[in-house]
Write a structure and sequence with these properties.
The protein is of the alpha/beta class. It has helices at residues 3-6, 27-38, 54-60, 101-107, 110-126, 140-143, 145-158, 169-173, 177-183, 200-207, 227-232, 237-247, 250-258, 267-274, and strands spanning 14-23, 44-47, 66-70, 134-136, 191-193, 214-220, 261-263. Strand 5 (191-193), helix 10 (200-207) and strand 6 (214-220) form a beta-alpha-beta unit.
Length: 276
């Protein structure tokens, strides 16, 4: 059976998860993501546990579907964060998580990555988050095969579904990630719609009509515009402001509904994975 059938839908149904990445990264992100999930088209979010505003998010998002956005990078020049575990290989010369995925891959040992990612999941659970799934900030856990093995291992350990990249990217990455996740008994989305830097409105209107039956995920990075955002993201703040606009756009919601997509979060995928 296909994933949509296992979830109790018809074989031709198209289900769509709209996930707010970077919950907890700032107060402005928290407010934008919260509005997107309660009044907009978002159905899910993921928490950046090491960030300064993560604890606020736990209270704000109580009762909403929230996963863990496994975080190994701190990409903003003037706004940085450290790991929970304090491992030397997870930090740059300034004592913060590296700013790029390439730096992580060059420095971080798999043992330290495993301990840190486990600590982030355990911290979210200790805060009372009913974690719905795992995904990866900047794709760090998905791109490097060493860290991908940890991604799958922890998802199996905590019995959580995963965000997976689209099936067409396995060949590009050079390893059969989707096959490995399936072999571990994990549930994950069929398709993933994301292209950093392309206007999200344009991306969704172009990509969604081309999708066939299955479970697709779209990720957004909504942040309220203002001094906080403009202070820490001096390079690409308009992308985040644009994603907030898309999340709150009734026209986009009508377009998605008109395409026949049914909204879903990662919770049903988790329930399916945990079913006896």
């Amino acid at each position: 059976m296909s994933l949509v059938e296992r979830l109790g839908h018809g074989p031709q149904d198209r289900l769509l998860i709209v996930n707010c990445d970077d919950v907890g990264s700032s107060h402005a992100a928290n407010l934008a993501c919260l509005e997107a999930m309660t009044s907009g088209l978002a159905t899910s979010g993921t928490l950046m546990v090491p960030c300064a505003w993560a604890r606020e998010a736990v209270d704000l998002f109580a009762g909403l579907d929230l996963g863990v956005h496994l975080t190994l990078t701190a990409e903003y020049p003037g706004y940085r964060w450290r790991s929970l575990t304090g491992a030397a290989s997870l930090h740059d010369a300034d004592g913060f998580m590296p700013s790029s995925v390439a730096e992580v891959s060059a420095r971080a040992t798999p043992a330290d990555v495993r301990a840190e990612c486990r600590a982030q999941i355990e911290q979210a659970l200790a805060w009372g988050v009913d974690v719905t799934h795992l995904d990866s900030h900047m794709g760090t856990n998905q791109i490097d095969p060493r860290y991908f093995e940890i991604y799958v291992e922890l998802a199996a350990e905590f019995d959580l579904p995963l965000r997976m990249l689209g099936p067409g990217l396995d060949a590009l990455l050079g390893f059969a990630g989707r096959d490995r996740a399936a072999a571990a008994g994990l549930v994950f989305n069929d398709e993933f719609v994301s292209q950093w830097g392309r206007p999200t409105d344009d991306l969704l209107r172009s990509a969604l009509p081309k999708l066939g039956p299955g479970v697709a995920e779209v990720n957004l990075h909504p942040v309220l515009d203002g001094p906080e955002l403009r202070g820490y993201d001096r390079k690409e703040p308009d992308i985040r402001v644009g994603d907030y606009a898309v999340a709150m756009d009734r026209g986009m919601a009508a377009f998605i509904a008109g395409q026949g997509f049914k909204p879903i979060s990662f919770r049903p995928l988790r329930d399916l994975q945990r079913a006896p």
